[in-house]
Amino acid sequence: SELIRGFLLSGMPCPSSCPPGLLALMAPGLALMATFSLPSHAGDRRALPVEKPPGVKGRTLILLDVNTKSPVRIISENFLSLQLDPSIIHDGWLDFLSSRRLVTLARGLAPAFLRFAGKRTDFLQFHNVKNPAKSRGGPGPDYYLKNYEDDIVRSDIALDKQKGCKIAQHPDIMLELQREKAAQMHLVLLKEQFSNTYSNLTLTARSLDKLYNFADCSGLHLIFALNALRRNPNNSWNSSNALSLLKYSASKKYNISWELGNEPNNYRTLIGRSVNGSQLGKDYIQLRSLLQLIRTYSRANLYGPNIGRPRKNVIALLEGFMKVAGSTVDAVTWQHYYIDGRVAKVTDFLKTRLLDTLSDQIRKIQKVLNTYTPGKKIWLEGVGATSAGGMNNLSNSYAAGFLWLNTLGLLASQGIDVVVRHSFLDHSHNHLVDQNFNPLPDYWLSLLYKRLIGPKVLAIHVAGLQRKPRPGRVIRDKLRIYAHCTSYHNHNYVRGSITLYIINLHRSRKKIKLAGTLRDKIVHQYLLQPYGKDGLHSKSVQLNGQPLAMVDDGTLPELKPRPLRAGRTLVIPPLTMSFYVVKNVNALACRYR
Asked: Which InterPro entries is this protein grouped with (predicted)?
């Protein structure tokens, strides 16, 4: 699917004077294929001038067709993946990953990677002990702490008796006490984050067991980021603690992929000394050698270097890394957060300038890789709407979904193989699931994406007219359309079907007429809108007018489409996100996996 640039503005039905071959005549001049991937057009967001036929006053129908012969990109089956932050050790939520409700929610987003990493990765130490009650730190109200810890131990003993997936049903009182503890720890974690000073964190063998159990039961493949800040006097990586963790994981036959460190460009601010790209590359080669010595991980995947936003100094670090270890990693990774969560406003999520900031970063990363390792896969890890932990009622609201869905569409259209969402569950407000284990709007958006979108990306062709732009005014693309082959895992649709997903940032509805290969086909609509009086700030959503909620702890709701009759114009409400499955297109690109 390709990003539709800034000239999809209006949507009145085409008048009778429109010639039948309008699309065929106009498509050569207006067909859009991968506009972001063409450097000569990357910065051109001005409306294309088109003559208006008689009787049309600046409005017309948007005509849409898709190239069904071959995909323009093919991304990973695990394209939409998840992250858990090590802070869940501090605040206690790791002990509750065996919850049936959490496992059900995670299973809904499988297949996917589960990356265990974040700001505290480089302060994490592995300790091979089994008794969590004696090794766990962190504050808790004195009047319940002892009983609470005993409850955790009893729960662990019960889980140990289970075979296969270990699933727990935690009593409500136990969850209530955990939320109290987590609320207190939240203040500690925020203080650390804002001061950029982090305390050491211990991961016990018991905790690693719980983490792996959650990933395995949920159908997720665990990626574990090792501490890179354990350094020797000569600034080389001290691998002793990592080796202990690797040996334990191998003894349990855990299927894990690996990383080393998190945002190495920030190490100077964290520990007062930097690790340059060349040294980091040597550290990765050292880690690869360790993995090859352990039979279980001799062929394990290794990803990195997980740099931050690609500014000049970060690009220099990446270049140094790629010169030394470009062939050592299976994919190159970086992070992106759109805005500072401490100053974000709901209107920020509607700005096309903000949505487009990611495109420039993609080009910078691709330029480095094309120089050193052409064809190497690129992953965006740790992506979130806002940094600094996000903002309540904003980065966890319906409005944040515009950024998230556009991120998915843009990255897929540019061939980024995997995007890892920060976070599935944590103390901040960028997560998909809250601390009551209720799914938030971005979870439902992700679930729809997983159910409907396949890995094959298709090119879109658009024809249509627009209002004449005002002098000096740049018209930006507030209507964004992407197309993929429908997911092969969705047995409600035969192979050859196509799924469109559309973001309408306009404050008015827009109309789209399917043309060419999509003409006169039955369409299933999945319209996602905020539910309740909070509007864009809402933490609840409705699908085709019906509120979405879990049926019970073990059951997700059925995602029911609204069938549209063949040939019907698609009407896109203002400030909404929607998916449209065009059935029985028999698209050549989509018939085979």
From this structure: GH, Glyco_hydro_79
Tally of domains within the chain: 1
Under the banding of pLDDT at 50, 70 and 90, the label for residue 150 is confident
> How far is it, in rounded angstroms, from Cα 291 to Cα 299?
8
Q: How far apart are CA 78 and CA 450, in angstroms?
A: 9
- Bridge partners, 463 (sequence order): 63
- Is residue 253 situated within a structural domain? yes
Instruction: Let me know if residue 197 belongs to a domain.
Output: yes
Q: What is the pLDDT of residues 454-505, one digit of tens each?
A: 999 999 998 764 545 444 444 458 999 999 999 999 999 999 999 999 999 9
Structure tokens, 278: 């060349």
* Interatomic CA distance for residues 95 and 152, integer angstroms: 7
pLDDT for the residue 45: 32
More confident: 198 or 24: 198
| Contact predicate 541/398, CB 8 Å | yes
Alpha-carbon span 291 to 284, nearest angstrom: 10
Give Cβ neighbours of residue 479 (< 8 Å, ≥ 6 apart).
4, 8, 9, 62, 502, 503, 504, 505, 506, 510, 572
* Mean pLDDT of the 531-547 span: 96
Q: Which domain holds residue 562?
A: 63-129+155-590
Give whole-number Cα distances, 554 to 169, 179, 435, 478, 584, in Å.
Answer: 11, 21, 17, 38, 33
Residue 303 domain-assigned (yes or no): yes
* Most confident segment among 133-142, 353-362, 478-487: 478-487
Q: Please name the residues in contact with 311: beta carbons below 8 A apart, sequence gap of 6 or more.
A: none
How confident is the model at residue 9, as a pLDDT?
Answer: 33
pLDDT of 476 reads 57
- Distance in angstroms (rounded) separating the CA atoms of residues 160 and 152: 12
How much is the pTM? 0.86
Q: Where are the beta strands (DSSP E) in 207-324?
A: 220-226, 256-260, 302-307
Instruction: Output the average pLDDT for the chain.
Output: 85
Asked whether residue 436 is domain-assigned, the answer is yes
201, 90 in Cβ contact below 8 A?
Answer: yes
Written as one string, the DSSP assignment of 110-154 is -SEEEEE-STTGGGEEEE----HHHH--S---HHHHHHHHHHHHH
- Where do the H-state alpha helices sit in 342-499? 352-355, 357-372, 400-413, 441-452
Phi, psi of 517 (to 5 degrees): -65, -15
Which CATH number does the domain housing residue 109 bear? 3.20.20.80
Residue 146 has pLDDT above 60, yes or no: no
Single-letter residue type at 219: G
Position 145 scores a pLDDT of: 46
Question: Which one has a higher pLDDT value, 279 or 336?
Answer: 279
